[in-house]
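Morning, I've got a small favour to ask if you have a moment. The fold is given in discrete form, as structure tokens running alongside the sequence. I'd be grateful if you could look everything over and explain what you see. No rush at all, and the record is pasted right below.
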Amino acid sequence: MLISQCFKKDEKEIKNAGYYLAMLFESSGLSAEDNINIIKNIIEKIFKIDEHIGAATSGLVADARALVERARVEAQINRITYSEPIRVTSLSKKLCDMLQLYTQNGGVRPFGSALIIGGIYNGKCKLFETDPSGALIEYKATAIGSGVQAAMDVFEERYEDDISLEDAINLGLDALYEATEGRTTAQSVEIAVIEVDTQSYRKLSDDEVSEYVEALLERNAEEEEEESEEEAEEAVEEEADETAEDEASEETSEDVVDENVTEESDDKEGSEE
């Protein structure tokens, strides 16, 4: 019972955390996050695991840090033992095996953190999502944290297998914009990419992020303006239709009154005769 209660609490921590998402695109892997009310460079949520692997975390910060350190150790053990970088799939499975152990032993609690692990191995992009139960799911685009459904709706509608780097970044920011209900700012967003050509993890600079976020806000401002204009036109049309209906009903009522008056006059004439 105690483990079940802790597990439910940990799930809640994940759902109420920030917004974190990732996707695969034509030449590389991407992850992005939005740290609402968190000062950048103090609480890190996107991590470099190895040269070719990165991770985004959601949930309890301390638990996430422990999982990231474990992932880094596993990556280095593989390099020393086999003289090659670890496979993204193998690393994800090793982490999930450890996560699952903490759900079945007494005296410990499950980790209160979920991870998105993305990377490249032998020219192939891989993207996995883990949760505190140890479940492992592979995606082409996914999100964790609060606002997940809004972000996933954007991915399901607009994601394509041959999406380019620029389009992938813009799509990720659009998903963040929907998940945060328009509260996305350059100060709260971090973006990292792993390109196939270099197979190297890289975080975008603040200036690069600012350019993308400014373009995002301008794009959505134009869309919102167009939507407001369309809504205003629809309101005018609806008002005109209602006015026409009211006039038609008034004319119908007047016709009915005239008919009643005519019938009454005919009845009076008939009774007088």
